[in-house]
Design brief:
Number of domains: 1
CATH topology: TIM Barrel
Strand order of the largest sheet: 7-6-5-4-3-2-1-8
Order of helices and strands: EHEHEHEHEHEHEHEEEH
Radius of gyration: 18 Å
CATH architecture: Alpha-Beta Barrel
CATH superfamily: Copper homeostasis (CutC) domain
Helix content: 25-40%
Largest sheet: 8 strands, parallel
Strand content: 15-25%
Length: 245
């Protein structure tokens, strides 16, 4: 069986590391601690220039919920135009209505705007009211794939629903498990769900090169002297595990 690995990154450094490790696709984001928001045009442009594998960009104007105002919707439209100009291969989007249903109408309009880029419906799905009805809505929107943790915090906890989604989607939609996937659970998730594409970050904390360090002060909510970067060895390990299935 042929498997594909998508690596979620928030830097060009991580994207290049993931490509070198053998990843099939990159999902480029900003603010992964918020679940991912739209990256800057500079990062998108640099990533496209430094990658030969497929590049997908999340279109999410802010963290929080997935109920967007008309102003935010317009921002999403503009960001999709920018992605098209830079030669991005796909967008990653997700919108809900106040009642927890998939916002099919506005999602479909953005997907039509994005063509020929493909579209992945992201984990906004995991917050929808009815996953099986939501699955049909995601298919109706024109999405190519669905990223989901099976409506759990971690994909390994949502295996049963993911398996059901894979079976019901058939060839109409690619179901891609994501959230907390690593070397310890990838085999279980792959064998149990029947999925063939997987989404993960494969990150490892790295120390800053700063010699002088002002202690006791954080700029923002995260410590200032470390960062998380995609680890090529972690990604290679996961790919090697999948090759044995």
């Amino acid at each position: 069986m042929e498997f594909k690995i998508e690596i979620c990154v928030d830097s060009v450094e991580s994207a290049v590391n993931a490509q070198a490790a053998g990843a099939n696709r990159i999902e480029l984001c900003n603010s992964l601690f918020e679940g991912g928001t739209t990256p800057s045009s500079g990062i998108v442009s640099s990533a496209r220039e430094n990658l030969s594998i497929d590049l997908h960009v999340i279109i999410r104007p802010r963290g929080g919920d997935f109920l967007y105002s008309d102003l935010e919707y317009d921002i999403m439209r503009r960001d999709i135009d920018i992605c098209g100009e830079y030669g991005v291969d796909g967008i990653v989007i997700g919108m809900l209505r106040p009642d927890g249903e998939i916002d099919v109408e506005r999602t479909a309009k953005l997907i039509d705007l994005a063509r020929p880029m493909t579209a992945t419906f992201h984990r906004a799905f995991d917050m929808c009211a009815d996953p099986l009805h939501g699955l049909q809505d995601v298919i109706s929107s024109g999405s190519s794939r669905l990223l989901t943790s099976g409506q759990n915090n971690l994909a390994v906890e949502g295996i049963e629903l993911i398996k059901k989604l894979v079976q019901k989607a058939g060839t109409k939609l690619i179901i891609m498990p994501g959230s907390g996937i690593n070397e310890s659970n990838i085999e279980q998730i792959a064998r149990s769900t029947g999925a063939t594409e997987f989404h993960l970050s494969g990150r490892e904390a790295t120390e800053s090169g700063m010699i002088f360090r002002r202690e006791g002060i954080n700029i923002g909510e995260t410590p200032g002297f470390s960062k998380k970067v995609a680890d090529p060895q972690k990604i290679k390990n996961i790919i090697d595990i999948l090759k044995l299935i």
